[in-house]
Write a structure and sequence with these properties.
Blueprint lengths: L16 H17 L2 H4 L4 H19 L5 H16 L5 H4 L4 E7 L4 E5 L2 E4 L7 H13 L11 E5 L5 E5 L9 E5 L8 H7 L4 H12 L14 H8 L4
Antiparallel strand pairs: 1-2, 1-6, 2-3, 4-5, 5-6
Helix pairs in contact: 1-3, 3-4
Length: 235
């Protein structure tokens, strides 16, 4: 029998408006306090520690009322905003997510086990979303703005990224990330899943070994990359 699919992880809960208001105030105070040029010289772990120390001081000085768990969550979120991909970080860390779809700052969807669901994650505003998109595409020497509103890029792990910015995106910047799977499937696993017949898998193995030229085509999400990765085992 095919192996049971892993139980999907719980979608991140919706945070309160109070949380986002507090986060905005703390973030603004952090930017006024921290020396970004010096921060850029630190390694990732040291930079996180520097940010956490300053944020803890800001929380104490401004006397924000929050639990230890809420404070830890705030610290992690702000570190991700400054050093990483902001609210996307917890989604990028999950291996069970195939696609991340962002339609404006307040609508973030994920695809898990073939099902699309809305998350409780959101961006501070459309400018933060666009800034994160700029951070992503700049790593491959690209830019996205009004003069170049459509951009394709890749994350360092190989995940594919598409960005559509205003004026083409009328409800705020749209971002799609097709995540790169770390554990490649095999043709034998596709047979077990019923995605291909044993006879078809054997033919593809032979095609790979004798180095025939083939074309793999299909619609979005149909499994083109998955099949191509399977075939690389027989080249």
């Amino acid at each position: 029998a095919p192996p049971l699919a892993p139980e999907p992880k719980k979608v991140q809960r919706q945070k309160s408006e109070t949380y986002y208001d507090t986060k905005s105030q703390v973030f603004a105070a952090l930017i006024d306090t921290i020396d970004l040029s010096q921060l850029a010289k630190l390694d990732s772990e040291s930079a996180r520690e520097e940010i956490r120390d300053i944020v803890n001081d800001i929380i104490a000085i401004k006397n924000f009322a929050m639990s230890i768990a809420e404070q830890e969550e705030l610290l992690e979120d702000i570190c991700n905003d400054v050093l990483g991909y902001g609210p996307l970080e917890p989604l990028l860390a999950r291996d069970d997510i195939a696609d991340i779809m962002v339609n404006g700052s307040k609508n973030v969807y994920i695809e898990v086990n073939g099902k699309v669901e809305q998350t409780g994650i959101r961006f501070r505003d459309n400018q933060q979303l666009l800034n994160i998109c700029q951070r992503i595409v700049s790593q491959v020497g690209r830019r996205v703005d009004e003069s170049s509103p459509i951009c394709d890029a890749r994350l360092p792990d190989g995940s594919r990224v598409n960005v559509i910015a205003p004026p083409l995106a009328i409800d705020g910047t749209a971002l799609t990330i097709r995540k790169f799977k770390k554990d490649k499937l095999t043709l034998d696993q596709l047979v077990k899943f019923g995605a291909i017949s044993p006879h078809g898998a054997e033919i593809l193995k032979i095609i790979g070994r004798v180095r025939c030229n083939i074309v793999i085509s299909g619609g979005t999400g149909s499994g083109k990359t998955t099949l191509l990765n399977c075939l690389t085992n027989y080249i």
